[in-house]
Amino acid sequence: MKMKEVISEQQVLILIDLDATHNFISVNLVQKLKLPITRTEAYGVAMGTGDSAKGKGIYKGVTLHLKGINIVEDFSPLGLGSSDVIWEYNGWQHWA
Question: Is residue 7 part of a domain?
């Protein structure tokens, strides 16, 4: 499911992915928002489309404003297609 929501007062398109194992944020979006990055080793990602991608670093404590609820998550940067964010939704733990 895709929905428009807000990160750092910027409207973004979020793909809520029930099968994702991690959260991802568009490289273009983090450059626009000037989010601070925590360095990590390079990593590889197998996308749901069958493509693979490489990334490096993590953005910690990013707040999603999702339907009036603030959700704080860590996000790995990737070059994403039509979405700004891929959010790994894995149950109601996010709504506590």
Answer: yes
Looking at the domain assignment, is residue 33 inside a domain? yes
CATH of residue 23's domain is 2.40.70.10
**Contact by Cβ (8 Å): 41, 54:** no
How many domains is the chain partitioned into structurally? 1
**What are 17-56's pLDDT values in tens digits?**
888 888 999 999 999 999 999 999 998 888 777 788 888 9
- 81 within domain boundaries: yes
Upper half-sphere CA count for residue 29 (Cβ side, 13 Å): 26
| Domain assignment of residue 12, yes or no | yes
E strand residue ranges, the chain: 2-7, 10-17, 24-26, 38-46, 52-66, 69-78, 85-88
> Which DSSP category does 55 fall into?
E
What pTM was estimated for this model as a whole? 0.84
CB distance 2 to 14 below 8 Å: yes
